[in-house]
Amino acid sequence: MAEKPWEGRFTEKTDRCVEAFTSSIRTDSRLYHHDIEGSKAHCRMLAKQMIITEEESSLMVNGLGEIKMEIEDGRFQYDDCLEDIHMHIETRLTEKIGDVAKKLHTARSRNDQVALDVRMYLRDETKSIITYLLELRGVIVSMAKTHQGVVLAGYTHLQRAQPVLLSHHLLAYYEMFTRDQERLQDALKRINVMPLGSAALAGTTYPIDRDYVASLLGFPEISRNSMDAVSDRDFMIEFLSIASISMMHLSRFSEELILWSSAEFSFIEISDAFTTGSSIMPQKKNPDIPELVRGKTGRVFGDFFAVLTMMKSLPLAYNRDMQEDKPPLFDAIDTLKACLDIYIRMLPAIKVNKDRMEKSTTTGFINATDMADYLAGKGMPFREAHSVTGKAVSYALSKKKELHDLTIDEIKSFSELISEDIFEFLKTDQVINRRISKGGTASESVRNQITVAEKRIKQDRKAY
Ligand code: ARG
Q1: Under 8 Å CB-to-CB from 225, ≥6 apart: which residues?
Q2: Do 330 and 382 belong to one domain?
Q3: What CATH number does residue 153 fall under?
Q4: What is the pLDDT of residues 381-393, one digit of tens each?
Q5: Over the stretch 183-242, which tens digit does the pLDDT of each residue have?
Q6: How far is the CA of 196 from the centre of ligand 1 (A)?
Q7: Under 8 Å CB-to-CB from 357, ≥6 apart: which residues?
Q8: Is position 278 annotated as part of the catalytic site?
Q9: Catalytic: 387?
Q10: Is residue 419 helix, strand or coil?
């Protein structure tokens, strides 16, 4: 059994069940790369500050490099008795290079070490999620471009409200994912702060150079308060909140894709490659991907809440509770990435049923607002126009007709301001193209949204 780095003060061996209970190696082994990079930078700094010799430092740096290879080749042995990835690597280094390895932990504690590892890891993952979001935004914009001119019913309360362009509808999601990306870019500033050198909680007596470690590891700044640095996880909670928001956006999109692919809507068909069948009902083709994305959203909300709740009563500074941050963090990262990735692949495999979408704009009095606008345009106050149109709707309902199916005499009976031109006015493309207010659904406005989005994506691609 390997010797524990903290064994000195203990006279009895740790109970096996305690080792199993307290160990986090099964989860935090994925931090190995960042742990090793952090330790190498720490070694170099210790040598530069003459806290250890150059020779000792290079022995340790080389040994750490070899350990990285052992882990990557699957030769590394894990053991619950060594608790976590930090102790595994340090113990292995001692086995490899002898007692000199015991200097690695000079001026350092696992408390600042784990804070460093998690920040480095999350920094990389945040950047990777940003590139997924960027790609997803690109896919959405190209769909919006492909389907320019396709109209469908826009809904409020899931009741047909006013017709919109499909591109407009899709670009709403582009906006949501753009904000998610911006939120991550902003959060990155707070993730990208170097905590090492805070030691256990109070700083260290050694003449370390924290700025040097930060420059070696690519951190633009170092933490200003050691107690905060070892015990804060708000950078992680912020990330999890953003991941939750992004999953919520994916989940809303999923809900629409599920509805739209039902026989009742038949607005879209998700290709066979991205759907699955039923083991009992031969006719079924199920939208499992959006369903699973919608389902996984709950998991990510849970991950967010797990860390938020775990932190809420912790006194300063580090508490072991905080080891529980990693399973939810890793789960949220994996889940969000998997969902973004599958969306990027699935969206181009969606067939749009243009005719069905268009048909949805011909019933349900979807042009009633426009009849009111028509009357208001002829001088009737809008409130009155609303009420007159309401009466026309009620009449048409009793005749099982739409407003545009009424005869000219029927429709004229509601106001003498109405003339023949109302039927042209109520046509779907007219209804849509009159919505020229900035951000509205008129073709021109949507074309403009596409141009702006494409430009923005190009800029973002250069930056990332
Ligand atoms: N495995 C621990 C964690 O993830 C590392 C820090 C342990 N610190 C300690 N004082 N026991 O939080």
Answers
A1: none
A2: no
A3: 1.20.200.10
A4: 999 999 999 999 9
A5: 999 999 999 999 999 999 999 999 999 999 999 999 999 999 999 999 999 999 999 999
A6: 14
A7: 150, 151, 152, 153, 166, 267
A8: yes
A9: no
A10: coil
